[in-house]
Amino acid sequence: MKAEGYMYHPGDVVRVREDLAENTNYKMCSGKNNGADCWIWGWMKEYAGKQITIKRINGDGFYEAAITEDCIWSDEMFEPLNECFCSSLL
């Protein structure tokens, strides 16, 4: 189900930023909370550089991930996945 106006949607696979840091605000850049700050819990850094799946957009307009249902995520906490599929030239 697509959520209008959001950068990511339920079911999307995203990569958590490698440089995720405590005491840093990360903004929502889309949706009803566009511009709102979100901060991380220290344990969330264990997901830095890893892929997670967006489970839903909660009632407050932030993302929840399938593996971390007890916290929220914002757009700036993620990096887009730029997967490239190449065919053999041989």
Question: CA-to-CA gap between the ends?
Answer: 40 Å
Which stretches are poorly predicted, pLDDT < 50 over at least 5 residues?
none
Shape: globular
What would you call the structural class? mainly beta
> How many β-strand runs?
7
**Major sheet: size, sense and barrel closure?**
5 strands, antiparallel
Strand order of the largest sheet: 6-5-4-1-7
Radius of gyration: 14 Å
In percent, how helical is the residue content?
A: under 10%
User: Which series of helices and strands comes N to C?
Assistant: EEEEEEE
Properties at a glance:
mainly beta; 90 residues; two-stranded antiparallel sheet; five-stranded antiparallel sheet; 7 strands
Structure in words:
The protein is mainly β and 90 residues long. The model has no long low-confidence stretch (mean pLDDT 86). The strands form 2 sheets. A 5-stranded antiparallel sheet has the order 6-5-4-1-7, with no helix packed on it. A hairpin with a 2-residue loop joins β5 (63-65) and β6. It contains no helices and 7 strands.
